[in-house]
Design goal:
alpha+beta, four-stranded antiparallel sheet, 11 helices
């Protein structure tokens, strides 16, 4: 609801081709940042220096000036805007049949928040006769879900939190972000557009920066296999582990009321996604080729992909130059490093705000979960705020506890009581 930079717009309708009964025509339109930011210009150099926008509790440090990100490049309601669009045809099984990229002018007919779209899908009144449009988007999404079920991407649904500040800049509260089907609808169409961009550029033999997510590290896998064994879970041995193997574990964990615990462990086994010109596929999404195309206002990778599309399909000015094509390997390393730096800045600023928020709550008890077990003590995260804390070994209890590395646990030597990774606990600050 409070977003100012509108990267993307979506549209769907049943495909009029009688040979594609039950299929859909989907359009994903993305702000045409490459029209405004030409290669090697001062704007371009500064955007690359930042690599991405960074989102802190009290501000956004944007990749592009606000005149572009909040205005000229923002697909604002009822205003004509230049865009890069892809028309995608999917069949009744949700499989992508074709894609066509174009530069166009577009006009958004509805700025809907996720809450608005969800309410409309559930029967609430829609402004500007948008009901049928929202309904068609959800129908196309449901068709697309058939393909997703077959592909079986990694299904890690970890809670997201947002820090809300008061007028003086202090933390007023921390809320868990609600996740609606509306989020999944947009997510699915963005994934579809990103796949279309990667496939189209590969076919056109145009250099491209991929978003890659390599398979889990074998050593980490062995460690979590041992740990899961202590909880009576069995992760397939030998051969390569697929997302579906993890999903099966998570399903069983859900039935045993241990999903958060096992989700944490599965998350730790994953490598970090990076940008690279060498494609190793995307393990988490279970997709062979994937490129970021949908957020050029806030990610430099997407801007390079737009320029590659402009060049590949002869869509006008500001396409990929020879100089940029040669520099893509270096650029991908740089923006991967900058992304890590942004994530660290976001995490550290959240920690500072949460420390200020909790300063007045010494002695209060909280529900928490163990996020790390070491020979020095336990790392925990508070359920309500997501704040991290540490419990030194001497503060766990009156008895002596020994650290069991393979079990990710500490065990009381006289009582045999166990504190292990992912376990819910009650703690006092």
């Amino acid at each position: 609801a409070d977003t100012k930079d509108h990267d993307d717009a979506v549209f769907a309708e049943p495909d009029s081709d009688e040979n594609n009964s039950g299929g859909y025509r989907v359009i994903v339109a993305i702000a045409d940042v490459s029209y405004f930011v030409s290669p090697d210009s001062a704007l371009d150099k500064e955007a690359l220096k930042r690599g991405n926008s960074t989102y802190l509790p009290d501000r956004v440090v944007p990749m592009l000036p606000e005149r572009l990100s909040n205005d000229l490049c923002s697909l604002r309601e009822n205003e004509d805007r230049p865009c890069m669009a892809v028309e995608i045809i999917i069949d009744a099984s949700g499989t992508k049949k074709s894609q066509r990229f174009m530069r166009a002018m577009m006009r958004s007919h509805g700025k809907l928040s996720y809450e608005d779209a969800q309410a409309i899908s559930e029967g609430a009144d829609a402004p500007n006769n948008l009901g049928p449009v929202v309904s068609a988007l959800y129908d196309a999404y449901r068709v697309r879900m058939k393909e997703r079920a077959k592909r079986a991407p990694l299904d890690l649904d970890l809670p997201e939190r947002k820090i809300i500040l008061d007028k003086d800049g202090n933390v007023e509260k921390v809320i868990k972000r609600e996740r609606f089907d509306a989020h999944k609808v947009i997510e699915e169409f963005m994934i579809l557009a990103n796949v279309a961009a990667a496939e189209a550029l590969e076919r056109a033999k145009t250099p491209v920066i991929y978003r890659v997510h390599d398979q889990p590290d074998p050593e980490k896998l062995e460690t979590i296999r041992d740990y899961l064994g202590t909880l009576d879970f069995n992760l397939t041995k030998g051969g390569s582990v697929r997302p579906a193997n993890f999903n099966q574990l998570l399903k069983i964990a859900g039935e045993r009321d241990q999903k958060e615990m096992v989700s944490e462990v599965v998350l730790r086994s994953q490598r970090q996604a990076i940008y690279d010109i060498e494609n190793v596929g995307h393990f988490g999404l279970n997709i062979p080729r994937y490129a970021h195309f949908t957020s050029p206002i806030r990610r430099y990778a997407d801007l390079t992909v737009h320029r590659a599309l402009v060049k590949a399909f002869k869509l006008g000015e500001n396409g990929q130059t020879e100089k940029e094509a040669k520099a893509l390997s270096e650029i991908s390393q740089q923006i991967s490093d900058l992304e890590r730096r942004s994530v660290a800045a976001e995490r550290e600023s959240n920690d500072r705000y949460l420390a200020g928020y909790l300063e007045e709550k010494v002695g209060v008890e909280f529900e928490a979960r163990i996020r790390g077990v070491t020979k020095f003590g336990l790392f925990i995260m508070l359920d309500e705020s997501g704040a991290d804390g540490f419990i030194p070994m001497r503060s766990i209890g009156s008895e002596r506890f020994r650290f069991e590395e393979k079990e990710h646990a500490v065990i009381g030597e006289s009582s045999g009581g166990i504190f292990r990774l992912g376990q819910p606990v009650r703690v006092s600050l």
